């Protein structure tokens, strides 16, 4: 009950040194449908479920192409993801225009993190309710990053976020040692298998790939 | 009871990772009178009930013409819909003025979504209380989109929103396989039948069409 | 009791998708003294009660002349009505100055609606507490509009708002079929009869007319 | 008890369509000491009690001269009245400077009303706690207006506001038919008699006059 | 208990038409140490207690010289008084610079009142917690004014504010008839006697004079 | 319990005319470690405890040099003190740059007081949680001032603030009569003795001196 | 229970003179993983645990290089640390650009403290939830500073912050007398031993060094 005193505002610390609103925004990510990514030494693959509101609706995209060699998958609030995607696209474009070279992936992820951190320290704003898996390819090879509503980002060999992502993660962990030398189609196979381990009753998969 | 602690403000996350204010705004859409849309390969039709405050009042428009080949039907707060309609008209005009071509439908719908998302992340604002069915025709043929107060949009072959829209939706789902090759008048007939299935006691229909 | 959690702020949705503050502002209109309007094919008439604070006070105007061929009657907070009237006058003047033609009536009513809608979506403001009957004459002939605190407007053949307006409305509904071809003085007679049906004990009427 | 939910903020409507904060500000007027005004066809007179904090203090002015032919009496918060008086003086001066003619009385009263209305529609402000009797003389002859905290104004032949103003009002009502042709001194006599009827135990009167 | 609903904010009226926060600020004046002022036809004297925090501290000034012929004594929050004193000094200087004449005393007092009134009508500010006795000499002779946190000011022949000021006031009232023709030293004697009547146990007096 | 209604906000007066938040900020001063100052006719000495977080940490400064002949000791929040110290240094520098002379001590102290007062009258700010002892030397000789969170300042011959400062104050009071003619080293000795009387168990002293 | 009244806002003092929100932010530092630093006369070493979200994720940096001879380790919210790190890097760059010399370490630490203090005195912001160990080398040799959310900073010979940092601190205290003359590799050994004393079950260490 006492917890409730500290959890309606992202600028209020709890006595234990927690920001509950940020934790709750992390929960929103877990409510979204699953998406996952994995990379070999040469390729990186993003994969998400293709879901639709209704039978005769078109499918809702959960994977967005950001740049020619950069993409993101999302879990959580789609509207927030679109906003961040638009931000990423603008950053890429303005980088290309200024330096005539693709935006380094890590820098881009850092910019999303800074934007997210800002939302956790201002009254009257709310943390983003979306987690991203950002996959890209630059001079250092393929990358797979996760960004969180709390402003953190992590680099992964393989990762999965969203509802029921634990079983996909288990699959990925068990097979992570196999990925590094994989060809693209084997990598895709792993992605689909991991996705399938999380959702047995659904019938359709969607994948999108970057390398 | 605990729910109430998180649901008066659209910048407060619930512990489960929900934004209740956004959900409540979605309810406002369900309270509005029904409207529906469906499309064939060549045509797209919007259809809504013609209702009046009183017997001798003129009818209140629920369908707005946005551009020569673009229209929208609404369910929820009419005043919010007018505001969004005005915004759409301005965007179309400024696009026409700048590029001398009609505004692509999807881009326009994205702009409404961005505007809606913004209202869900700022203290002292409220999410829009209106859902739109946007119908338009561009180089890619006819389109039917739905926009929601939470900043999402979906593309449909046929869709219905507002009070008692479920029965119309059932009719549309059952007949969705017939629409693609329909001529315009058959499509209109389907629209009126779907509308009728939702409202039996009302006596007057209103339809408007775009192709 | 739960209702009270959502009704002190016009940017808070109730779980049922209602904005209670807007509904309450609609109640303020019902507390004002009655006014009504009706139109034939050629004329439009506004009519309100002449009331005074005290016996030896001058009468308080409830009908305002906006432009040479445009007027409004009000029910609710007089101070809010004056503010809107001033706004309408300014719009008319600036339109006349810019285009050298009278402001189209519907456009003017839409501007009031937009202004009203804006007050329902910003924290720290309140919806206007006044309903207007706007009567005007332009190229399309005479018009009678109602504007509401929630940002809606409706066109009517005949309408009445304010306290005990129901009985006037009943009279108007019963006789609505007679109005279209009426001469101005017959129309005035109908207006006075409708007003009388609502207030039997009051002794004085005030009318004002536009055509 | 429920009333208390809606009465601490002037931008919150009660479910009955009332703004309680505005009503409470009206109460502040009734707590002030009495002042009254009356007019004949040629003259207008303001009259208020001369009261002092202590025996050896100078008397506190409740009547302010605004312009050469314009004055105001007040009831309620003196500090608010001073502020409004200063505003009126500035308006008169700037009108005189711009048009080289005295400010029409009604327009001036309208400006006070607009200023008062504004305070009833913004969060973080409070309605003025003062009622004014504005007496002035312009081309249309003498005028007597009352302005209220809610942004309304009324024109009167004779009126009285403040604590125990009812008995003065009774006197004025009973004798209102005599005022129109009165000479200035008879008018003053009526004013003093009306004031006396309200306060029997006080010993000193103050009057100020304009014509 | 109900009172508490209206008394934490200076922009909230109580149902009785009171601003409690302003009243509470008036209480702060009564908590300050006593100061008093009195004037004859030629002179005006301010007098306050010399108190110190500790034995070996210097005495804290409660009387401030504002201009060559203008001073003020204070009761309440010293920090607020300093702020107002600084404001008065600036006003005097700028007046002298602009008009090459001393600032009229009453105008100066009015400016303090306006500044105080402003603090009673804005959310997020608080009324000043200090009462001033302003003594000055201009073309109209000596003046003694009191300014209050509520934005009022009064002129006095003799007045006393602060803790236990009632007994000093009793002395001053009883002897007020003697002051008008007094020489300066007799006036000082009266001031000291009045002060002494309020504080018997204190041993040191401080006086400051203006004429 | 009722007290709690008025003590979370520095712009809310209690019914007794108190600003509790300011009082609470005064408490923060009492929680800081002790510092003291004393002056003779020629010298002024500041003295504070040298404390460290841990055994192998460097000592935290509680005495700051502001200008060549000006220093301050603090008790309370160190971070607030640093901020004020930086402000003082800037003021001294800009005074020196403008007038080519050291900043008069009292004026400087007044500036701190004004800054502190400002924090007690604005919503959304908090009073500083630090008390300063400002020691300086100017044309009028050595000075020792105390500034408080409430915006007051006092001049002292000798003073001590912070936790357990009462016993140091007792020592200083008992020996205050000896200070005026003291040489600097005797003065230092008194300072150390006073400090020792307050803290018996601590083993290290720190002193800093100005003259 | 009463405590809760004062601890949701960093601009509210508790009656004991505490700012609880600042204390709670200090708790956030204790929740972070451990990091430590120590210095000899010639070298300074920072050391933190290498932890990863998952087995196949890359390690998350807790030590950031700021400048060629300046680095920082962090404990608490990583996102806040990144923000401060970026700030430090910018300050260093702009100093280098302006003065063509490295930024003095202490000045840099002071700037972080000022930034932190600012967050403790403004409504609608929150104190940073991160503690930093800043290690650097300038003309005065190697330095090790700690900055806290409350705006304080301390210089240390050796220090450790974060979860279970007490045992590391014990090791450092016991061996602090050995550090001053240490060679770099002995210093590193001490750092690793101290780290190991805090975490026995973890298997991997990460260190980074500056001199």
Question: Count the strands of chain A?
Answer: 9
Cα gyration radius of chain A (Å): 18 Å
| Helix/strand class of chain A | alpha+beta
Biggest protein-protein interface? F-G, 38 and 37 residues
Secondary structure tally, helices of chain A: 5
What string gives the helices and strands of chain A in order? HEEEEHHEEEEHHE
If you average the pLDDT of chain A, what whole number results? 86
State the assembly state of the protein chains: homoheptamer
Span of the ends, CA to CA of chain A: 49 Å
The major sheet of chain A is characterized as:
5 strands, antiparallel
Low-confidence spans of chain A: none
Gross geometry of chain A: globular
Helical fraction of chain A: 25-40%
What's the arrangement of strands in the largest beta sheet of chain A?
3-4-5-6-7
Estimate the strand proportion of chain A: 15-25%
Overview in brief:
Chain A is an alpha+beta fold.
Written description of the protein model:
Seven copies of one chain form a homoheptamer. Chain A has 211 residues and is of the alpha+beta class. Chain A contains five helices and nine strands. Chain A has helices at 20-31, 78-99, 105-119, 165-179, 184-198, and strands at 35-39, 44-49, 63-67, 70-76, 130-138, 141-147, 153-155, 158-161, 205-210. In chain A, the strands form two sheets. In chain A, strands 3-4-5-6-7 form a five-stranded antiparallel β-sheet. Chain A has a four-stranded antiparallel β-sheet with strand order 8-1-2-9, with helices on one face. In chain A, a hairpin with a 5-residue loop joins strand 6 (141-147) and strand 7. In chain A, helix 4 (165-179) packs antiparallel against helix 5. Chain A is globular, with a radius of gyration of 18 Å. Chain A starts with 19 loop residues before the first helix and ends with a strand. The model of chain A has no long low-confidence stretch (mean pLDDT 86). At the B-C interface, helix 1 and helix 2 of B face helix 3 and helix 4 of C.
